[in-house]
Amino acid sequence: MTLSSIAQQRLQQQHIARPDFEKAEDVVSWMGAMQAQDYLGALWAVGLRMKNARETDIEDALANKTIIRTWPMRGTLHFVAPADARWMLKTFTPRVIARSASIYRQAELDKKVFAKSAKLLTAALEGGKQLTRKEVYEVLERGKITATDTRGLHILGHLAQEGLICFGARNGKQPTFTLLEEWIPPVKEKAADVVMAEFTLRYFTSHGPATVQDFAWWTGLSATEAKETHELIKSSLVSETVDGITYWMTSNSKATKAKSTGVYLLPGFDEYLMGYTNRTPAIDTTRFKQIAGTGNGILNSTIVINSQVAGTWKRTIQKNKVTIETKPFEIFSKTQQSAIEAATKKYSKFLDL
After folding, report:
1. Which domains does the chain possess?
2. Which of 5, 136, 277, 308 is the most buried if burial means most Cβ atoms within 10 Å?
3. Phi, psi of 76 (to 5 degrees)
4. Is pLDDT above 80 for 74?
5. What are the backbone angles phi and psi of residue 176, rounded to the nearest 5°?
6. In this structure, how many other beta carbons lie within 10 angstroms of the beta carbon of residue 285?
7. Is the whole model's pTM more than 0.90, yes or no?
């Protein structure tokens, strides 16, 4: 196995090279979680793994509660399956909240403020109500809680991480928030070690070949915790060592011996890169700055050719069309350019433009 074959195998396991899912919820359940702070990009991340998806299909899944958008890991927004939302929040967010203590102090947020905010929002959202961010902030302000600067966002994130609220359906172009307990029905809880073992196996099935360090970074677990949960399912996996690094995967992973010639347009925070702490199988480290945007945590959308990130792209939407502007690391050949044009047609079909 080589770094290139690892990248090719990931394209297969993540269903980028073989997009055969029919439903958005099946994609999200397979992946375990999908980073989703860039909402429109996240819709495409799900859609590109489906057979014939439209953007509205994924939005419908969110509105129909078969996908949940919340802050379950690393203090970052993700799409998760409804059955996973509660236990993930319970398992992964306490350490995120603990790490945010200094940020809360700087914003003058404490347990008293969070408790009062929770009471205000519970009263405002009860009965299945969904409020936009502006409306939520107005509720807080009327309750004498300042929501300006970043205070409002920190309050929303904290209450979501505690399992009180999650995102609802969009109101026009505006996201809404609703009570998690009303949005998705409770599910029977499994033993903590059982659910973690199942989740860990899902990660190495959907993201493999991957390292234990990748899993630790992805979940936010400590290295020790990641090793312990990996031990629970180690017997269900096989491993390969490349350049002194051990990669784990399921034995039925779709290894590709021939070099993949696929060309894909991926959104900026796609799991193909964000699912791992070590991204060298898919991108040369000297190129990473070129996809890092302005350096404020934004990652540009990427063009993947032969399993390698070969450039970036961005979209501009006008009335009835979407224009794709590409920025290659090196000049694309005519064959590559034709393949990119075919990929843009798939994306435009997704947008119905």
Report:
1. 19-183 (1.10.10.10), 263-351 (no CATH)
2. 136
3. -120, 145
4. yes
5. -125, 165
6. 9
7. yes
